Amino acid sequence: MVLCTPVLDQILENTKNDLGQDFTAYRNHCYRVLNFCLALCEVANDDEILQKVSIAVAFHDLGIWTAKTFDYLEPSKNLARDYLETNDRAGWIAEIQTMIDMHHKMTPYTGLSNWLVEPFRKADWIDVSLGWLKFGLSDDFVTEVRGTFPNAGFHKRLTELTWQQFKQTPRRPLPMMRW
What we know:
Elements: H1 6-14, H2 16-19, H3 23-41, H4 47-59, H5 63-66, H6 73-86, H7 93-101, H8 117-128, H9 139-148, H10 154-168
Helix pairs in contact: 1-4, 3-4, 3-8, 4-7, 6-7, 7-8
């Protein structure tokens, strides 16, 4: 299990003011998704994959807080692109933006199979479903990750944001969903 990655921690620390009281909840969500994604990839000690997933997971929902919107995929992708350009990782932009754009896709991603999009999508669904979905990961592993990185109110916050969005746009309550 990955307990910390400097790139993820640095990105989150730089956005701590935006995250406010949701900092710990979002950080723990990021680490749960990171660990689920790496397990689904079945990789050990692949630094490039760890870096890509760390960056994608840091930014994947961040637009909720930085742009103050529940229609957050574009703001999140833009934050990731800016980070990648600034840190000499422009070659990763397409893959990481696709990871962010497709992480709430209801059906499997069938694009480039060598990209991390599908394991990332599954990893986020494992966490959003509170471990109900597992995509082949063991109950013990999912329970261990969830115990190591407690919810800290993340799902409660998602419920509040969903309700706010529904009140504002009842015909489009979940704008981040993809088919």
